[in-house]
Amino acid sequence: DLQICQHRAPTCCTKKMEESYQAAVRRERTQSIQALNFELKYMIVGHITAFQEAFESLLRFAENRTSSLFESAYRPMAKEAAEPVKELFTDISLYILGAETTVESAVLRFFDSLFPLVYSRLINPGITDLSEDYTECLRLTRQDINPFGRYSKNMVTELSKSLWASRKLSQALSLGIEVINATEHAALTKECSRALVKMQYCPHCQGLTLIRPCVGYCLNVMRGCLASVSELDAQWREYISTLEYLTNEMASSHDLEMALTGIRNSINEAILHAQLNGPQLSATVDKVCGQPKQQEGSLSSDNIVPVKEATETQTFVMAHASLNNKRREFINYMKRSRTFHASIAERLCDGDLVMRDSSTCWNGEDVV
Questions:
Q1: Pick from 63, 90, 151, 62: which is nearest to 115 by CA?
Q2: Which of 265, 255, 260, 267 is nearest to 315 (CA)?
Q3: How far is CA 147 from the centre of its chain?
Q4: What contacts 339, CB < 8 A, 6 or more positions away?
Q5: What ranges in the chain are assigned the alpha helix state H?
Q6: What keywords tag this UniProt record (predicted)?
Q7: In whole angstroms, what is the distance from residue 352 CA to residue 213 CA?
Q8: Residue 232 and residue 235: Cα distance in Å, rounded?
């Protein structure tokens, strides 16, 4: 009653054993593919972590550098500006990691929060009544009167260009893991299971437990079984080319490091622009939001909390170098994996599975 290992000679197998063999080949094939995938997956996961650590290090440096701007140049608003600065860099971090947000919304939200502070602490430092309604009116007015000139839009443009490549690379690395995981769990067809049993276990039914498959026979069976996986070859090569393009973009015109460190200067220019146009802005705000209460004398310095000064240049240089090294190392490794899906059958038929150094092997029907 054998269905797979039918042979003229007497056999020591049963139909139940054939079913066990089918379960065994499915399990072994999954384990073999997992073993092949392990190094590639390990490299990608390792680089996802390394890139994220380098991103975070650069973001922390740029955030501290931006915070120090307020402490050194705009002390009256340093304490209140801390939260909008923190929110801006949190939004940038989330964007790089693939969150459903945009650079433009993050930057413009920051400038919406900044304008009430600039208006009440720098342009009109005597304002005491900064109620929620008045603050909200200032936030909404910012969008109409554009107190920061072209600088807010320029910041959006610069950051969008550089962060785009970083975001896409982050998404692409996650996609690579998904593809690899999918190949591990690709279901074997019934025909494939039977072919694998015939190749690996049918010799056992004749007591030939030491005979292994012929190389050519193994390749034919594996190529048939893994046709769906090898079909990924063209897309995988294209994927590697895309990774190469993105890493080059990050290192050239879309330099993430330069864009992040430039945030401080963009904000400074924007605030200076608003101060220079203070009288015109005040006239417009008074018409739209009304006149707030004024207090004579200067603002007390009790509210000012020292912000950590950005003295981490060494950290930035190290993070910058680390990111560049990781890019090069990663893309060189990935380029070597271009043929990963095309050569999977050859790699599975390598090693102990087949008979290489002997003239005697199993061809699916007999020992030859």
A1: 151
A2: 260
A3: 35
A4: 233
A5: 15-73, 78-96, 103-118, 132-145, 151-184, 190-200, 215-225, 227-230, 233-251, 256-261, 263-276, 278-289, 313-336, 344-348
A6: Cell membrane, Glycoprotein, GPI-anchor, Heparan sulfate, Lipoprotein, Membrane, Proteoglycan, Signal
A7: 10
A8: 5
Domain boundaries, the chain: 15-291+315-349
Alpha carbon 251 to chain centroid distance? Answer: 16
Per-residue pLDDT tens over the stretch 124-182? 887 766 788 888 999 998 888 999 999 999 999 989 988 888 898 888 988 988 888 88
Amino acid, single-letter form, for residue 101: T
Confidence (pTM) = 0.75
Tokens of 63: 């955030």
Please count the residues of the chain.
368
Query: Is the Cβ–Cβ distance between 51 and 77 less than 8 Å?
Result: no
Q: What is the pLDDT of residues 258-295, one digit of tens each?
A: 888 889 999 999 999 999 999 999 999 988 888 776 65
